[in-house]
Queue: 2 jobs
Job 1
Amino acid sequence: MEKILEVKNLHVTFTTYGGTVKAVRGVNFDLFKGETLAIVGESGCGKSVTSNAIMRLIPTPPGEITQGEIIFNGEDVTSFSEKKMRTIRGVDISMIFQDPMTALNPTLTIGNQLMEGLRQHHKVTKETARRKALEMMDLVGIPNPKERLNQYPHQFSGGMRQRIVIAIALICEPELLIADEPTTALDVTIQAQILELFDKIQRETNVSIILITHDLGVVAKVADRIAVMYAGKLIETGTKRELFYNPQHPYTKGLLRSVPRLNMKGEALSPIDGTPPDLFAPPKGCPFAARCDFAMEVCERVYPDDSLKSDTHRVNCWLQDKRAEHLLVINYRNENRGGGKQ
Ligand SMILES: Nc1ncnc2c1ncn2[C@@H]1O[C@H](COP(=O)(O)OP(=O)(O)OP(=O)(O)O)[C@@H](O)[C@H]1O
Ligand code: SF4
Ligand SMILES: [Mg+2]
């Protein structure tokens, strides 16, 4: 399969009065043409910062991409000028933001907002742009598009507005769509319709999608692969089946605890006891160590390397590292001795 995106060793920091927040700390992943990758993880783990970095929308200062590469169609976007980025953003890479209700301009008609990107980037005539806008409204399921084109955002319901936001994101036929919690604000029926819409659009346009969500039902429904993020790192990546049926990282196991099946609906990720580490001073070793039932001494000292469970399944946990097998034996013996028969 052809890769559309390669994120390599991405680091993003924010310099604040309280110190430097290490929000994204060495993230690696690939995205293939026409697939959907879901990024899941607790609030504050760096999902939005990662996607904003791909769009080069990290506010600088206080933020900065301090290391790494973001290869989109063979070119590293971290080296692009803002001028070049403006020709790509909304055209080749589109994003649906976490707060879609504020994404529309209340003073412009839906038609103008739909046609704006097309006219700016593709230099099409007004008539062509209008035809394309009507086609997109039809694709996202807006009834009476001709009439609706001249209306303003406040004349649309929440679900319909979200459809418009999706239509705007897709009208220039991007190769990559990043959707940050695109359905959170919507009720369940509309959520389901929007997800079906994603599916349909992907089949029709072969767009690659990065989907950020807290909703495991959404993941189960639309993801091909899942990446689990924790404290600024991707700690486990695999196909949907691998992660739902054979999770390896204790954090993934905890997070997906409530999902032994793929047909579930609207269930949120399981909360896990304890709090994530302070990203001002993240631990040297495994960031999950303080909350992990299986933590060993090495976990606190050294960050675990990638362990490959299959060609598609990667995890960072000492329990999966061949070099730590003897440590597990020692741990087991110590535990048995400690809890011995007295
Ligand atoms: N502008 C900023 N200034 C300082 N810190 C920031 C800024 N933006 C993000 N951060 C920090 O970066 C970290 C990652 O934030 P991010 O928004 O990516 O989390 P998230 O995984 O998207 O969470 P949620 O699920 O709540 O949306 C957090 O600790 C956050 O406080
Ligand atoms: S590396 Fe250690 S602390 Fe981290 S998840 Fe694995 S066993 Fe737990
Ligand atoms: Mg976010």
Note: The pocket of magnesium ion (ligand 3) is lined by residues 47-48, 98, 180 (CB under 6 Å).
Job 2
Amino acid sequence: MFPIEHRIMVSHILYWLRLEKEDQGSLLKSAFKECKESKHDFYTSILFNLSYLGLSNLLQSPHAYKESYVKSVISTRLKDQYLQSFRQKLGSFEILETCKGDNVYECSGYLETVKNVKLRNVFTRLRINNNKLLAYSHSDKVNCEKCNVLENTEHMLFHCKRECLSKERERFISQVRKLMPSYPSKGTEAKIKLLLDIGTKQEDLIKVICHHVNTMYSLRFIRP
Ligand SMILES: [Zn+2]
């Protein structure tokens, strides 16, 4: 998702370009001239942004450039810069590897498909390792009390031997295989991606997945 401040910056620059191209003698042209001479915030911010984007040449001869060209150059540069800094941040951020995806700047599928806010909270917490499972808690205890192995998201969703979780997992598999027969034979990574990224547009499947993920996480803490 392209940040809103970038869209604002693009429209500011395009508006400035239109002002530069405004007919001589028009009232708007006079007002803009005064804006430049008095170093109004609007104009100084345009100067700053153009130099930040490496587009100072636009200032010298704004008439030489078409609006569509300027729009596409600015959008591409902003997107590149944004992606670069986003990837740097993501690299140092603890998140399930399988949830990082390729087009990381785009809205993850689950944000569009999971409408319930409480449910989205569960999904996000599981995806970014910010939840109550022992592997992410701030105590020394990281192993599942039942299975004595690291209790992380993968363990809770797919391997934990707690009775309530095993039963829910079986119930889910019998339900999901009717909608997606290939589910049981998928690898863990593909399953995580399907469950936490909701990589499907199939509405009945989305409902089944949402219900399952939420139930698993609730059961883990309701019935120890
Ligand atoms: Zn366990």
Note: The two ends are 39 Å apart (CA to CA).
